[in-house]
Specification:
Shape: globular
CATH class of the largest domain: Alpha Beta
EC number: 2.3.1.135
CATH topology of the largest domain: endopeptidase fold (from Nostoc punctiforme)
Number of domains: 2
Distance between the termini: 20 Å
Structural class: alpha+beta
Protein name: Lecithin retinol acyltransferase
Pathway: Cofactor metabolism; retinol metabolism
Helix content: 40-55%
Radius of gyration: 19 Å
Family: Belongs to the H-rev107 family.
Strand content: 5-15%
Order of helices and strands: HEEEHHEHEHHEHHHH
Number of helices: 10
Number of strands: 6
Pfam families: LRAT (PF04970)
CATH superfamily of the largest domain: endopeptidase domain like (from Nostoc punctiforme)
Largest sheet: 6 strands, antiparallel
């Protein structure tokens, strides 16, 4: 029988990361903000197989440049679970589709224009190469891997996100540094006995995120969760 405590901790972390992965809408907007106009980005400096990063407020989105203003990137999306219509799926992913995709652990590796991928943010090129030194694959191999994986896929904020996708394509190993950093930060907060308030808030978040009544959550999830994280 699997230990429910690590599973509960994993679920809690995924719920917390969901809160920082939603793209914020501009004030007063009833829908998705429009992406940058075509030609907004100078793609002449991009090469096929480049790893592109778009820093957001609380996270980073990643993609692999395929050439001709096309970027392959992994996005949580509920739509591929209900339809195979490429015209519908290829439309810009809304927050509703993204959130439902995270909850149901469904996603797609899709090809979008640089403008749709970056969504108005600044772009860093091959910024992660310094972390992998001699592990960088050839540009064509990176692009080929990305193209081969295009389509519906499973999704996990912790174990299979956009960073796992690009690091596999360009470096041959699926890793996510921002996920590791997030998990370590949460563990440090919980391990610090002086952070009583933070621990209480995380515990309350577990009750809300896991959808359990306090009477059942506290003895079965809340206390073992902190013991496991502190271990």
């Amino acid at each position: 029988m699997k230990n429910p405590v690590p599973q509960a901790a994993s679920l809690l972390l995924e719920k917390l990361m969901l809160l920082v992965n939603v793209r914020p809408l501009p004030a007063g907007s009833g829908g998705e903000p429009p992406p940058a106009a075509p030609g907004y980005y100078d793609t002449s400096c991009f090469k096929r197989g480049d790893l592109l990063e778009v820093p957001r407020t609380l996270f980073i989105h990643f993609g692999i440049y395929l050439g001709e203003n096309r970027v392959a990137h992994l996005m949580p999306d509920i739509l591929p679970a209900f339809t195979g219509d490429r015209r519908q799926i290829q439309q810009v992913v809304t927050n509703k589709r993204l959130i439902l995709g995270v909850i149901t652990k469904t996603a797609s590796i899709r090809v979008d224009t640089v403008e749709d991928f970056a969504y108005g943010g600044s772009i860093l090129v091959n910024h992660m190469d310094r972390l992998f030194e001699d592990q960088v694959l050839s540009s064509e191999e990176a692009a080929h891997r990305a193209e081969k994986l295009v389509g519906a896929t499973a999704y996990s904020l912790l174990w299979n996100n956009c960073e796992h996708f690009v690091t596999y394509c360009r470096y041959g190993a699926p890793v996510s540094f921002q996920t590791d950093k997030f998990c370590e930060t949460v563990k440090m907060i919980i391990r610090d006995q002086r952070s009583v308030l933070a621990s209480v808030l995380v515990g309350l978040a577990s009750i809300v995120c896991l959808g359990l009544a306090p009477s059942t959550t506290l003895p079965t999830i809340f206390i073992p969760f902190f013991l496991w994280m502190a271990g």
